[in-house]
Amino acid sequence: MPSFDLVKQLTQQLPLCLNQDRHVLKRQLDRLLSESRKGKNPVEQLNALASRIEKSVAARNQRLASIPP
Q1: For residue 48, how many other CB atoms are within 10 A of its CB?
Q2: How big is the chain by its Cα radius of gyration, in Å?
Q3: Distance CA 36, CA 32 (A)
Q4: Residue-level pLDDT, tens digit, the chain, 69 residues
Q5: Cα gap 42→28, rounded to integer Å
């Protein structure tokens, strides 16, 4: 099922997110995984969460790039 693949991919990206976002994003991901296991197909919610994770990763990378050498 493609939603499980997406969940796995998003789980791997969580350590790359901002520290302040990780807990909330992980809880949302766990909730959506639980819904997937119950037979629901939360594709729209997973895509929205993927977008939030991408934004958090981008913000973290921007912060890391702004640290002086």
Answers
A1: 13
A2: 13
A3: 6
A4: 467 788 889 999 999 999 999 999 999 999 998 988 888 888 899 999 999 999 999 999 999 999 988
A5: 11
